[in-house]
Amino acid sequence: MRSLSASHPCQRTTPFVRKQTRTATKTQIGSLFGGITANKRKKELMMDILSVVENSERGTLTSQQDMKLLRGFFSELGDIAASDPLQNPSAVNGTWKLLWTSEKEILFIIKKNGLANWCGTESGNVYQVIDLNKNRLQNCIEFPPEGAFIVDSFIEYDSESKRCSFEFQGARLRVPNNREFTLPPVGKSTFKTLFVDSKYRIAEDARGDFLIVERVGPPRVF
Hints:
Layout: H1 4-7, H2 15-53, H3 64-83, E1 94-101, H4 104-110, H5 115-118, E2 126-131, E3 136-143, E4 147-158, E5 163-175, E6 179-183, E7 188-196, E8 200-205, E9 210-217
Antiparallel strand pairs: 1-2, 1-9, 2-3, 3-4, 4-5, 5-6, 5-7, 7-8, 8-9
């Protein structure tokens, strides 16, 4: 006599169920390998980008040919980011040092014979601090040995658009002898993260300018 458990129709695996299981497994495997491939390609692109900008003096010496090459790399990173969006927005938190940018306002200040030189000084490191937990964004251009230009902003992450939006709240020009001059805040904008890992980050703002930065520590206050 066959047991009830062996013959009960509700306990049989139908071809439809087996097919669904196989399809789900293939989808999961496809997503896994797709993610691995995307991560590998992003790291390859990051290395290519770093190679191009290595001797560009943070973007002030970038040629039109190199800019065209970089835009191709950025475009591919953007396509990957669209299909494989940032899962952990807090990954952008940290203190970041500028390696390269296409933003004309920053380049005008830091380039040789730029604004910093006209003012009798020279530009030092350029930093960006992001702390989404405290909605705080800071941009700082140092003028050694004691000067700095610091812009404070409110920042938040939009999970729908996958972009960070920010609004300027104030600016300060720090000069020797611990003196500061305040400037009025002007404007707001957004940026999206094209690449981020434990060491590097690439972002594109609403105007189409790009930023490459290196993580130097947790969020700090300038």
